[in-house]
Amino acid sequence: MAVFKDELFEAQWLRAAGHASYGAAEIAECLEVARQIGAADPERWFSAWSAFASRLFEAAERSEHAGHAASARGAYLRASNYWRAAWTFLFQAPIEARALNAYRRHREAFTRAARLMTPVGEAIRIPYAGKFLHGYFFKAGPEGAPRKTLIVNGGYDSTAEEAFLFSGAAALERGYNALVFDGPGQGAAIFEDGLVFRPDWEKVIGPAVDYLFMRPEVDRARIALMGVSFGGYLAPRGASFETRIAALIADPGELSLFEEMKRRLPPFAVRRLMDRDGLVPRVLEFVLSRRLRHVSQGWALRRGLLVHGLKTPIDYLRLTADYATERPEAIRCPTLICSAENDELGATARDLYDRLACSKTFLAFKASEGAGEHCESGARAWFNQCVLDWLDETLADVA
């Protein structure tokens, strides 16, 4: 039975509740938040999640001051996740003060939780294009011996902090170091620095690997890269140039953002999309501008304009042509391409898989397993069991 009738509200609720797998949600708390929200109302959504997050953060502080580290860590993690959920429907340009404040509290709560982990999760800065990218490095063990390491690369509206919940925590449980970070267009990079996405993601993955090469805890021969959501394009694009990646995971695999967009438009509109004048572009602009104002149907467009630094929906549609994995045949490391049954964003996953010339595996997650939604929301533990078992076996063969 659905918690929300609106599909987007339902998906975003499941996303937040699904992080219960790694201690960042309680199902009963999330159900109570949903009860308080009721209908698909972005204002009530923000208020309910924020209120729960604030209460938990205060409880975490009390526990921490009293010396109850485990209790504090758990409450900080849940507060962080709920603050991330709170700004979901405010994620648009211009970024308003409430969204920025919620992001900052999301980050602060997670940072406090990381400090209470064993070993301590370390907030880091990755040198990038004369600036720095915000992230965290988590050591698998206290002794500092070189270990296999997983980079988790998030997507359009994820953050370094949420990337840890997707698969960073699961990797730590299995003896991996974990690196999570915000690239351009994500988390701190967009909220604090105004850095927007770029299609040549190898220019982002390269500095992340450079950073890992400076850490004595990292086995340089066993660095794996996982892309989550839009990261399913970003990670393969980066790996097609970055030869230091020992294994690649794309969830879902995305060959081309443009091809995915084309499947949602009538053929005549696609043919005329790049025209700078004419009836079709004007009609498209009118239709999309009206859609932009719809709470749910316009959400992805509003998000796209923000993270790419664009003004109009048709500019965004045209920009998607730049986001195609130009040379998947150049990927040399073993690669796992994932796809969830109900996830339309994985529409080109099989196309990407077919183009690969490396050792490759395709893994389809099913609704009957509870894992059919985007990024296997609500069944992330099952996803990590399947995928990280594959990664264990793959890296075991690395010389």
Walkthrough of the structure:
With 399 residues, this protein is an alpha/beta fold. The protein has 3 domains: 1-116, de novo design (two linked rop proteins), CATH 1.20.1440; 119-256 and 323-399, Rossmann fold (3-Layer(aba) Sandwich); 258-322, no CATH class. The chain is 48% helix and 14% strand. It has helices at residues 7-18, 27-37, 42-65, 69-86, 97-115, 160-173, 187-191, 202-213, 231-239, 257-262, 267-271, 279-292, 299-308, 313-319, 349-355, 380-396, and strands at residues 122-128, 131-138, 147-153, 177-181, 218-228, 247-251, 335-340, 360-365. It has an 8-stranded mixed beta sheet, sandwiched between helices.
SSE blueprint:
Blueprint lengths: L6 H12 L8 H11 L4 H24 L3 H18 L10 H19 L6 E7 L2 E8 L8 E7 L6 H14 L3 E5 L5 H5 L10 H12 L4 E11 L2 H9 L7 E5 L5 H6 L4 H5 L7 H14 L6 H10 L4 H7 L15 E6 L8 H7 L4 E6 L14 H17 L3
Parallel strand pairs: 3-4, 3-5, 5-6, 6-7, 7-8
Antiparallel strand pairs: 1-2, 2-4
Helix pairs in contact: 1-2, 1-4, 2-3, 3-4, 4-5, 6-16, 8-9
